[in-house]
Each structure stands twice: as C-alpha cells, then as structure tokens.
Description:
By secondary structure, this protein is mainly alpha-helical. It is built from nine helices and two strands.
Amino acid sequence: MNTVVKELSPEKPVVETGVTAEKRMLDSIFGKRPTEFQLAVMVEQGLPISSVEVLRNEGLTFSEVHGVVLPARTLKHRKDKKQSLSLEEADRTLRVAKIITLADHVFGNHDKALRWLRRGNQRLEGRSPLEMLRSEVGGDLVRQMLYQIDEGMFV
C-alpha cells in the first residue's frame, strides 16, 4: 500500500494511505479532486503536459506511455510550444490512470496490476490490456475484465 505525506503545516503532516494513480495525477495537476463534471470540462480544455509524467511515475515505461497516450515527437512538440494535451490525448491519459487505479484495487498490489496490464491476454487475441487503452471501447473492455476478475470470474 502506498503512503503519501502531505505537509499542511510544518507541525501537522496529513498521511493518506491507499492513494490511487488517478488521485495522484489529479492532485499533481489541480491540487485537489475535481468533481466529475469539472474533470470532463478540464479534459475538453486539455490537461497539462505534466499529467503524462504522472503515468511514468506510476511505473509505465517511456514506450508504453508514448504507445498509448501520444507519440514522443508530439509530446516534445507540445512541450516546446507550451501546449496542453489535445482532448483525445487528455482522455487517454485519464483513462490509463483510472485503469491503473482499478487494477491496483483488483490485484491489491501495484506490481501485480502492472504485470497483468502488460501481459498478452488470450481474450484480447494476444494483445495486452494496456494496448487496448488506446480507445474508449478498448478501455471499457479492460474495465469489464477487471470487474470480472474482482468478482472471481475467469478472464
């Protein structure tokens, strides 16, 4: 279980346990958890480039992030021009963070969750769940598989 300490004042740190990938990403970008509506508006406006780095901090490799969210060349271009992520890129970034959070919950261990997300799956014709996160439909399928695993069904 991950533990994060936030300093509110020098004398009283607040300790949070079980902090999720999604929450860490949102906290690092916005400072607090937005409502679902606020989040939808923020995704439409484009998340900051820093949100991609949160996925790297969650244990995804350079090639995984750039294979699912956006190509490295596009990321470099956006950084150079100080642009936000496009709606599609922001949507994929948040989708990946939410799926990592769900997988962490289902497997109870971040390393096990990442192994499952990376491993080719027969139900996905050998593709990994992580690869499927490029589209909303693929993300829904991965989410459904995780719910089934959590309920004890063979996936």
